[in-house]
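Ops channel
N.P.: pipeline sanity check, posting one input/output pair.
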């Protein structure tokens, strides 16, 4: 706050003033007995809001203060001014003074139960109020009432300011702008980093979760929907808590959160079906992972303490009645702190907080330890064919042998704290503290040192229903040729042979017109067969 080269700042230790453009600061706290949460200079009167003593007023640039707690009391966290009227708001209500703080009148007509305010701002001579239930109101001087003008913003936040007639709102999901006096608001986050958490691919869309809200990208993460995708109904609003798990059943999204249990979102994430509330989920235990195999829903818990039973609950649970009831299936798990869950057809995978990776081929009835991840544990899993990916607090692990061996692949990532993973036919998507990243899967597969001096082939995606990429290595220069045969030995595809230097290369094959089944790809070098691999057309 600035007046005549006086800079004022409210802090935990009271009010400070600087007369040399911030080079030095002097406390001005005579009469103050609280930390300061808001400060306003209107004409010659200085107002300071506090978290427990309401509003203080100074008429001598902060040299002395007097309390105005008679009416306001409690917490004052924001000020606004229009003309001679000053407004103050906080969890205890909205108040107005027109006599420099000598008297405060309650100003809550029209707010109903929305009496706790986030922010106040003057735009075009009108006072706007943003309340904690995410509604916006405009003050009408003639009727001394608030009129609700916008009720579509579900994000939480705490800052609002005005430039000319434009309103800016800071929220948990970015910046929103209103150019029509608060009637509508649109997101404006180009160039800003969004910290996404859980990821899922459903159909041709990539979904990312942030603070309980779903964002959508239909261009492989190059751009995201400029507006948050609504997912609330008239009775229950989702969005005030982060999701603990996100997956797809092939048609819709399934999600879990600490407040709402498990729920299903339609493919466009606009309609919600609540399957099981938090109070019934594993006796009030939050799900750490979700997976779907056929009509069975699997959920995991990370071995957390249940205050109701005074015991630790963890492991894997399954439901065959649309998540209404769950049965625990932990046989074979050496550690029941399950941190990630994945289904590939009828095969399940689970990661535990001791670094273990387990698999089950009988709906979780029995689990077998595959491997232990070095130096960390996995909090998210993704798979295509025999290639598995795992997210951890030290980066992305990759396994080309169904989880038997793991290696880190963090090239290009600016943060290695991984929140979520998702796959489509070409890319692996990774959410981190610095946004959502993508990498071509074929570049992440890696080459074991034992294979660097020999010919080998890797296919992705496999199974395939469109374009498959075959990555291969030849140990020496020579004439290279690919041929692909069906199960009866008939040639269905071949490329023109060419002379290639030693090293890694790739070729793309379009399988779209092939009948479903198993095909054999053959790599020849100088006329000799040096490698084979199978391609599954689904």
């Amino acid at each position: 706050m600035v007046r005549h080269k006086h800079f004022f700042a409210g802090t935990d230790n009271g009010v400070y003033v600087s007369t040399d453009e911030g080079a030095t600061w002097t406390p001005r706290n005579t009469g103050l007995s609280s930390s300061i949460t808001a400060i306003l200079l209107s004409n010659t009167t200085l107002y300071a809001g506090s978290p427990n003593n309401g509003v203080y007023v100074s008429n001598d640039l902060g040299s002395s203060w007097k309390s105005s707690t008679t009416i306001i009391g409690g917490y004052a966290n924001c000020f606004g001014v229009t003309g001679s009227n000053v407004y103050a708001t906080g969890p205890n209500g909205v108040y107005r003074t027109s006599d420099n703080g000598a008297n405060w009148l309650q100003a809550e007509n029209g707010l109903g139960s929305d009496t706790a305010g986030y922010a106040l701002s003057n735009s075009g001579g009108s006072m706007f109020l943003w309340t904690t239930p995410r509604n916006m109101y405009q003050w009408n001087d003639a009727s001394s009432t608030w009129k609700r003008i916008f009720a579509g913003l579900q994000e939480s936040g705490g800052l609002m300011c005005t430039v000319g007639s434009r309103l800016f709102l800071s929220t948990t999901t970015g910046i929103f702008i209103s150019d029509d006096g608060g009637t509508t608001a649109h997101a404006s986050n180009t160039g800003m980093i969004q910290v996404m958490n859980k990821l899922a691919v459903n159909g041709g869309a990539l979904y990312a979760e942030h603070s309980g809200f779903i964002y959508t990208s239909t261009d492989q993460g190059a751009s995201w929907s400029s507006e948050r995708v609504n997912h609330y109904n008239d009775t229950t609003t989702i969005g005030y808590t982060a999701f603990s798990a996100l997956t797809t059943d092939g048609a819709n999204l399934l999600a879990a959160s600490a407040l709402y249990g498990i729920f299903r979102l339609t493919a466009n994430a606009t309609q919600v079906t609540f399957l099981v509330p938090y109070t019934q989920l594993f006796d009030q235990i939050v799900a750490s992972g979700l997976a779907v195999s056929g009509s069975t829903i699997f959920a995991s818990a990370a071995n957390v303490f249940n205050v109701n039973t005074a015991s630790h609950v963890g492991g894997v649970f399954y439901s065959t009645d649309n998540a209404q009831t769950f049965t625990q299936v932990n046989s074979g798990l050496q550690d029941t702190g399950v941190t990630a869950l994945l289904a590939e057809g009828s095969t399940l995978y689970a990661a535990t907080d001791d670094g273990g990776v387990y698999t089950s081929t009988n709906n979780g009835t029995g689990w077998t330890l595959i491997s232990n991840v070095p130096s960390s544990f996995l909090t998210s899993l993704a798979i295509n064919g025999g290639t598995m990916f795992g997210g951890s607090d030290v980066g992305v692990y990759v396994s080309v042998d169904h989880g038997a061996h793991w290696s880190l692949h963090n090239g290009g990532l600016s943060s290695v704290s991984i929140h979520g993973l998702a796959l489509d036919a070409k890319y692996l998507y990774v959410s981190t503290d610095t946004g959502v990243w993508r990498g071509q899967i074929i570049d992440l597969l890696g080459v074991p040192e034992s294979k660097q001096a020999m010919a080998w082939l890797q296919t992705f995606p496999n199974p395939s229903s469109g374009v498959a990429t075959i990555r291969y290595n030849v140990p020496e220069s020579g004439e290279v040729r690919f041929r692909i045969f069906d199960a009866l030995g008939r040639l269905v595809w071949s490329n023109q042979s060419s002379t290639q230097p030693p090293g890694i290369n790739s070729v793309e094959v379009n399988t779209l017109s092939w009948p479903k089944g198993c095909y054999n790809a053959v790599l020849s070098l100088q006329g000799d067969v040096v490698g084979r691999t199978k391609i599954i057309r689904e």
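N.P.: looks fine end to end. Residues 167 and 368 are 57 Å apart (CA to CA).
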